[in-house]
Design a protein that fits this description.
This protein is an alpha/beta fold. It is built from seven helices and nine strands, in the order E-E-E-H-E-E-H-H-H-E-H-E-E-E-H-H. The strands form two sheets. Strands 5-6-7-3-8-9 form a six-stranded mixed β-sheet, sandwiched between helices. A three-stranded antiparallel β-sheet has the order 2-1-4, covered by helices on one side.
Amino acid sequence: MIDVSSQLLRLENVCKSYHKNQVLENVSFSVNRGETVTLIGPNGAGKSTLMKISLGILEVSSGEVHRSKSISVGYMPQNVMIDDVLPLSVRDFLYLRPGSSYDDVKEVLETVRLTYISEQPIQSASGGEMQRILLARALLGKPDLLVLDEPVQGIDIMGQKEIYGLIAKVRDETGCGVLMISHDLHLVMASTDQVLCLNRHICCSGTPELVKENPEYHAMMGRPIEGVAIYTHNHDDDHDHTHHGHDHD
């Protein structure tokens, strides 16, 4: 049983519609301190809408959203667009975040292991380095909740493992909660406690090892990739958020 005082974010029966198009139907879940919740689903499943609701950017059509009092949130987008001719170093890009000091920037660069490119133009960063820069920016301000939108998009397997390892390390060292969007149930699961399979409603949910055996997951995401291991993770506070909704076209 999870102590309610540890909850950073809780959604209860959240629905969202745009005009007559229902994007989310009766979605309920929570994110607790020290816990990673990964949201997976196909394109058009409502993942981005649910993330925006979690961040407070969008209002719900019905249902309730509860956030811990005085919660600090760090957000990592999929990518950012930076003008090729803008004279901006990696360090200065991070320093542009309001309220950040040079000591803060130095600390997060050390955390994501990018001190060696701190003075280089941000445009020279590789794909994997850019994702770590965006993670570093999300860590400024020492957030209680990290919200990550496809944090490994466009980088190779080794780069993905490094990013997920950094996220898990930060979570374990700071006790923050993590809400993460992903497309699949493979390397990301090494440090995930709860998985939510979303296709407008939550089709199935639970620990990675339970979800990977759920026929609703396979129906939604397709057959597992041959030769790709799904890592398991033990969680002391195993709790069930499973919700079943109606099928959608």
